[in-house]
Amino acid sequence: MALSNEVEALVNQGVKLLASKKYDDAAEKFSNACELHLQETGRDDAGLLFLYGKALFENAVSKSEILGGQSEEQEEEKPQQDDEANEVGKDGTGNFSFSEDVPLAEADEDQVVAAEDEVQQEGPEDTKHDGNQQSASEEHEENENVPKEESEFDIAWDVLDSARGLFEEQLKQHSQTVPDVPPLKGARDEPKDQITKIKKNLADVYDFLGQVSLETENFAQASIDFANCLKYRKELYPAYSQLISESHYMISLALEFTKEEGANEEETLKLEEKARLQAVEHMKQAISCIKQRYSLPETTSKDENLLQDMEHRLQELERDPLKELEQQKMDILKGILGQATSNSSAEKEQDANKPVNDLTGMVRKRKANVKTSPNKRTN
Question: Which end of the chain lies in a sparser environment, N or C, as judged by fewer CB atoms within 10 Å?
């Protein structure tokens, strides 16, 4: 659908701001463009929503990087706050002070009566304190019922997901056939038909959705989004394309950090092992794509360091954490047994090195009985 001149002007301004990394201003321009287009046509435009969601995501990332240092400072302040909280219940010297309002069992009758009168006088204050606790709990429940404010990542997700839904609807309106030869060679190639254009937009949207999920540490969702991105990219680009190897790598990265909980511990371990093996497979395919691309004669730039880093990461992923844990246990056990054996040997050696006292003088010798051997002849 063609855009009006006013909307087109806002889009051009937003694109320039986006290129200048003025993400906040760019998001505002795209937001105004989306709103104006909706007023003019009565419907949302998928392309405008995608640009708006992209600007929101970039703006959220830039802010999170800027605020990263402040969050670390806040974490450093937490132990100090905890120390101050631990001071509650201590007297001026830092020692714990115990209340003496409750009379001791050995107290005399007058002290007991005085204590009872004091407790009765404090009754209204206790009631007031209970009322304060009740009001505080009610206020806490009200705060829980108040919906949490969405972060910029959440807003970016919603906008991008809306664009995804509109692109999916557009794709359903066209008959789909997978071409024998990929229609695009690289990211800079422009689609020549409407179906290719829609699929390219869907691949880009899913890529950004996956990045949003990574930033919010929703790794399971990120792996799904990157997998959908890979599905469309395989229909658009050759197998050695950098975009395909990139998708494999991102899926592997998301699966590596995916933590799924099963019905029990054994089921959880199985799910984690399945995700690890899938991450290994996608990492192998990413490396295979890179090697295939480097083997082409038209490939002039080759980043061997990148390939080495990815192969090193593959070796890390292939290590079975359960087997390594068992090996660590065996090493610890061997170390303990070895230490015990060495201690025992050392004690024996110490005993062997002790001076030996000559006790022969204290031993009484028996006199030998002179008897004639029965086999000895006598004259």
Answer: C
